[in-house]
Amino acid sequence: MQDEDGYVTLNIKAQKPALTSVEPASSPLWRVMALTLLVLCVGMVVGLVALGLMSVMQQNYLQAENENLSGTLKLLVKKVCQDLIQLSGQKESHKCNPCDTNWRYYGDSCYGFFKHNLTWEESKKYCIDVNATLVKITSKSILQYLNNRTGLIRWIGLSRQKSSDVWRWEDGSVLSKAELQLSGTGTENMNCAYFHNGKIHPTFCENRHYLMCERKAGIVKVEQLL
């Protein structure tokens, strides 16, 4: 640039040095704090998972205990009801009785004893018509109960298709020889069984005898005992 005297003036601006950003070195204290926070977070997650598992285990335990107590209470109520029925006599049964009139309550079942001279097949149909089945004897206690209840020959729900087959109950289960045995093997074509004097006997299905039916008893409620 030229001034009034003819001199040239140079306009030179001083250039500022470029600033470079330098990241400060990480402090050891911050590293320790970050690591501590990470450990705390992991610990909290592990703790929450552990609490969740403990809660599930506690719920399962309480549910199992509740089921055990409920089962024990049902058994106790059933036993008390059966004792009350026995004390009240046969003509005037206790109100806790879950069975219909003229049916007898024992174990988990109601038993009906009928004086109809029928064949085995006719007896089976008769029980079905009253929403029951021919009696199934699964234990010596039931055998003893039936022996105390009746001294007559009565059909039970035990049969076989032919003499070479195994004996089966109406529900298809096989007669357990460990618990019960037939009195005698029976001759050819004796494929149905009756109960008499505490024993199970094979006989011809076309014979006519009295019968006894069985159906599941209802639930006895605590308030019915009062």
From TrEMBL:
The chain crosses the membrane at residues 29-53. GO terms for molecular function: carbohydrate binding; transmembrane signaling receptor activity. Keywords: Disulfide bond, Glycoprotein, Lectin, Membrane, Transmembrane, Transmembrane helix. Residues 106-214 form the C-type lectin domain. Pfam families: Lectin_C. The keyword Transmembrane helix applies. Gene3D superfamilies: Mannose-Binding Protein A, subunit A. It is a single-pass membrane protein. One of its GO terms (biological process) is signal transduction. PROSITE patterns: C_TYPE_LECTIN_2. It is found in: Membrane. GO terms for cellular component: plasma membrane. The keyword Electron transport does not apply. This is C-type lectin domain-containing protein.
